[in-house]
Amino acid sequence: MSCSVCGTALVADARFCTGCGADARPERYGGWSTAPATAVQAPAEPTPRRPAYMRDLPDSVRLTSAWGRLGGNLLEGLLMVVTLFVGWVVWSIIVWGRGQTPAKQLLDKRVLQRDSLTPAGRGRMCAREVLCKGLIGFLSNLILIGFVVYFWLLWDSDRQELWDKMVGTIVVDDPENALDPRRSWRGVGLASAT
Asked: What average pLDDT does the structure give for the chain?
């Protein structure tokens, strides 16, 4: 068997050509692929968990589901109680710089700026967590049906809560920590950074 691109002789179970790097495996419907092994795959089609504006992010990053957001909020409240609020504040100040809260850090979630898709910094996280959530909580307690604002993400296409809208953020699942500002995910890998 030989490569259909460059003619190099291949071993029987070869996945790629040793001469040119072309895919040496038969495709599903017969024939041979002529694409080089380093070819970039086309971005996945937009889905509710992966809108079109997120195509430049790593494939593992998805919008957090409504249930994931609810679980994160419940865990956040539990952490506030367990750490007597003081521990939560110290922990928060540390991880806000990475676009996370203590619960989001434990659940591998991250808050990104909607326009640049970079992790929200300390200033934006402080505005989101303290000012916006505090204001919305205060106003929703004044209005009899004010609790409805907490379900905003159920009908929002970007699964944003009202405080996310106010500061321009989205919440994503980042199971591989690909968006950690301490790592470079835009072209430079960890190996080349060391």
From this structure: 83
